[in-house]
């Protein structure tokens, strides 16, 4: 067992045993995130996709948390945890926790001392109403179906769920499922 899995198990000791099992098999669209996140060049590409703390959605999130006085936030599909440091500075009372499918992103977060778990957005290892605010930015459009992920976010949130879309939903049409190829891996862009 590698060190990151040992750390994850130690941090997750209070979780049900089913949650501690490896996420296998990975779904086809999850493989891109798991495999490509291991490569430094791909990490740089992904970092560009995530943007930085000055993205308007990130600034608005922090302002919203300050206004509401939230004490806990779950970042679903956290990637590089770009909201961790700015949130710690502007809202030190808010506990930041994170979730991602990629073992690389989870390991990078653990190295920074972030409360993080490796899990699917559709199967979160948290109790009902466990976290005040659940935040999901630029993730749903990459899932094969967003309904289960939203249900999970609502289940876990005690007060509010905020979802930021990269690709604007079009309320005049039905959902469009699009499979794209990114670096030889199939993923969704809904």
What does this entry look like structurally?
By secondary structure, the protein is an alpha/beta fold. Helix content is 38%, strand content 20%. The chain is built from 8 helices and 7 strands; from the N terminus they run αααααβαβαββαβββ. The chain is globular.
Q: Helix and strand string, N-terminal first?
A: HHHHHEHEHEEHEEE
The count of β-strands is 7
Estimate the helix proportion, in percent.
25-40%
What spatial order of strands do you see in the largest sheet? Answer: 3-2-1-4-5
Q: Give the amount of beta strand, in percent.
A: 15-25%
Number of helices: 8
How many strands, which pairing sense, and closed or not: the largest β-sheet? 5 strands, parallel
What is the 3D form? Answer: globular
- What oligomeric state do these chains adopt? single chain
Structural class: alpha/beta
Contiguous runs where pLDDT drops below 50 for at least 5 residues: 1-21
Topology diagram in text:
Blueprint (H helix, E strand, L loop, with lengths): L2 H9 L5 H4 L7 H9 L3 H11 L5 H13 L3 E5 L7 H7 L4 E6 L2 H9 L3 E4 L12 E7 L9 H10 E8 L14 E4 L2 E4 L2
Parallel strand pairs: 1-2, 1-4, 2-3, 4-5
Antiparallel strand pairs: 6-7
Helix pairs in contact: 1-7
Characteristic terms for this protein:
single chain, 190 residues, alpha/beta, 5-stranded parallel β-sheet, 8 helices, 7 strands, disordered N terminus
In short:
With 190 residues, the protein is of the alpha/beta class. 38% of the residues lie in helices and 20% in strands. The strands form 2 sheets. The protein has a 5-stranded parallel sheet. Strands 6-7 form a two-stranded antiparallel ribbon.
């Amino acid at each position: 067992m590698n060190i990151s899995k040992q750390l994850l198990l130690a941090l997750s000791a209070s979780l049900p045993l089913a949650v501690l099992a490896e996420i296998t098999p990975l779904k086809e669209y999850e493989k891109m995130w798991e495999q490509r996140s291991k490569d430094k060049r791909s990490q740089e590409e992904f970092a560009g996709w995530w943007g930085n703390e000055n993205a308007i959605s990130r600034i608005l999130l922090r302002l919203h948390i300050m206004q509401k006085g939230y004490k806990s936030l779950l970042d679903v599909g956290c990637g590089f945890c770009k909201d961790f440091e700015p949130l710690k500075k502007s809202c030190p009372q808010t506990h930041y926790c994170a979730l991602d499918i990629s073992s690389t992103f989870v390991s990078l977060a653990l190295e920074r001392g972030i409360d993080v778990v490796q899990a699917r957005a559709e199967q979160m290892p948290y109790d009902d109403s466990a976290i005040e605010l659940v935040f999901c930015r630029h993730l749903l459009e990459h899932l094969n179906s967003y309904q289960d992920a939203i249900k999970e976010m609502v289940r876990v949130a005690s007060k509010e769920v905020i979802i930021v879309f990269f690709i604007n939903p079009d309320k005049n049409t039905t959902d469009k499922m699009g499979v794209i190829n990114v670096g030889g891996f199939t993923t969704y862009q809904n």
